[in-house]
Amino acid sequence: MLRIECPVCGLRDETEFAYGEDATVRRPDMDEADVKIWHDYVFIRDNPRGPHKEYWHHVAGCRQWIRVERDTLTHEILGSILAREVAA
């Protein structure tokens, strides 16, 4: 089981969180008309091995979105910050 450090609540079990999405993917501009770019955004994802950034929602806690850096090979949590701090 993963133990995720919530910046608000502290160290918690993975069961308190819901996986959100890959934090490295960026949505195309809403004006983008190229279907292939939208197709790739919606359906195509890398399957990285090693450190990777992901969004998780603390649904059974403070309900904050956090960005977690996790090693997908070892499942080690390398760090976490509030998602709103990423956008700032």
Structure overview:
The chain is an alpha+beta fold. It is built from 2 helices and 6 strands; from the N terminus they run βββαβββα. The strands form 2 sheets. Strands 3-4-5-6 form a 4-stranded antiparallel β-sheet. The longest helix has 9 residues, at 35-43. The model has no long low-confidence stretch (mean pLDDT 94).
Termini separation comes to 31 Å
Strand order of the largest sheet: 3-4-5-6
Compute the gyration radius: what is it?
14 Å
Averaged pLDDT: 94
Which outline best applies? globular
**What structural class is derived from the secondary structure elements?**
alpha+beta
Tally of helical segments: 2
> Which band does the percent of strand residues land in?
35-45%
What is the count of β-strands?
A: 6
SSE succession: EEEHEEEH
Q: Considering DSSP H and I runs of 4 or more, what fraction of the residues is helical? A: 10-25%
The largest sheet, given as strand count, sense and whether it forms a barrel, is: 4 strands, antiparallel
Give the topology.
Elements (H helix, E strand, L loop, with lengths): L2 E4 L3 E4 L4 E5 L12 H9 L7 E7 L7 E7 L5 E6 H5 L1
Antiparallel strand pairs: 1-2, 3-4, 4-5, 5-6
Summarize the structure.
16% of the residues lie in helices and 38% in strands. With 88 residues, it is α+β, with helices and mostly antiparallel strands. Strands 3-4-5-6 form a 4-stranded antiparallel β-sheet. A two-stranded antiparallel sheet has the order 1-2.
List keywords for this structure.
88 residues, alpha+beta, two-stranded antiparallel ribbon
